[in-house]
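WARN retry 2 of 3 for item q-0093 after timeout on previous attempt; input resubmitted unchanged.
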Amino acid sequence: MPESSQPTDASWSRALALARAALEAEPAGLLTDYDGTLSRIVHDPSAATLVEGAGAALATLAEHLAVVAFVTGRAPLDVRRLTGLTTVLVAGNHGTEVLEPGAETSGSTLDRGAISVALAEAIGRLPAMPGVTIEHKGLSASVHYRNAADPPAARAEIHAALESLDDGVLTIRDGRMIVELVPASSGDKGTATRDIVTRYGLRGVVVMGDDVTDLDMFRAASDLRAEGRLRAAIIAVGAGAEAPPAVAAAADAVIADSEAAAALLAALAAR
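OK item q-0093 returned
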């Protein structure tokens, strides 16, 4: 992305300065969410592609950093399909399923049989609702209600259907116009962040996210920084009405949207 087309607002410039400083502490890595962070939120989740410039920047950064990783609620192979990036690690299903760079299959230590049964039981409780779609991701599921005529009412109906769900196998989490059914007591994006930092011996890390599930990633990076283990730059993406205030509050800097995030990566890659 040409220098002249990069955002120039103070918050974006601060985010870039913090990210550059974090990546100077080698070995360094970049951990980022996918939906809403480097792809636009769209009505059809299967069509959420990377914004322009993000893919090339990620590929370049993967050549020079110890690790570049998506830490996402999506299934790992879904991220690979959408991005085409084979050199990027994917910690999918909220960090519980990992697709290594260059690998064709993902791995997880979870009991897939028990989770499959629990997901089927939970999904079976949900009534058919116009505009509400269910995305089954193998080890988790997402109930999207963005397209419902009355999203708050749809969310309430989803929660009512799931309120007596046995939390021994699954737990329920809310996101941006989404209700997540995820494995209970099996880690989260924060656990995945700590695992990646430890595995690659990172001394510097940039983390990027836009939703409440990314708070686990933010907290992990913040805690590791407080422990003196690494230099971290925590960047929240999204400043609109839909952006959860807690995400911005937990970040070191806030940038406007996924296009600004792609520009940030392009600037880091150019350096």
